[in-house]
Here is the input.
Amino acid sequence: MTMDYVESLANLHTDTSPARWPATMRHRAPHKPFLFLAVMDLVAQGVIQTPFIEFTVDLLDMFDLYWSSTMAQGKRSTPALPFFHMRSEGFWHLVPVPGKEQVLDDVPQIRSISKLRQLVLGAVLDDGLFDMMLDGESRDDLRRVLIETYFTPEVWPILVELGQISTETFQYGLELQDRSRRRFRLRVKETGRGHYHQIARSTAFRRVIMGIYDFTCVMTQLRVMTPEGHSAVVAAHIVPWNESHNDDPRNGLALSPLCHWAFDQGLIGVNSDYRVLVSPAIPEEDKGAEPLLSLDGRELQLPAERARWPAKEALTWHRRHVFRSEAPTQLL
Here is the structure.
């Protein structure tokens, strides 16, 4: 039975085209191998503990990590595609949303996360395959088959390192959650524990902040997702990393790109009552600045759990060192 699953992973049904897929992918679509590598990473971390696989933000992040690190810049995709098409492999069984069984049977393909969630609750793996994934040695064998079958040797070290980075991301995320339960410290002194890859650190910080704020800008309440599942909102440090080395979630805010830029430039800030401050450096008569001017005095949309609110100490630092509290001197 073990060899059956190894054989199955070595013979996934994938699109083959030298015009669409690079030589490093052996001219084959990498969607299914990336998805399965991501699932195994989450099993190894204990995030996935049963054969039932849900389409989660964690799975999306892991798939994106493999995709963005190996594919040409600008080439987009979504794990919704392989999540649906993996049903043809015999070991991946889609669980339809009640009442959508016939629709799911009839639909030829799914390309967006929203469509996938309309029709699918998740997927169930064969018990035998999931047992292999739970065993470290067998899981490594499955990873090796996927990597060596669908990618050329120059890509192998990258994929192995990405597996390590995904583990670090998970571990650092747990560390940040634990840190947020302790007394807030404005600056964190680097210790021997600061051994994480930069991408693991930044990914974990973003994942924690996005989870706390539900992908919603605290100032504008903007919440927009692309069909691939990417958010318009970013995770921003209140006290910059190079100043604080502090990824404590209470040193973070979920902000739209415009608010993030304005916050970093000191054009907006947050007062002690968690309301938006707009700098007098922005001329009130400037109609183009209306999106920022309209935020003045607006209350932040904060997490339900007060212990996760932004640290007032960090916001005070931002007001003192970044926020432009005075209008610039007129030269003429």
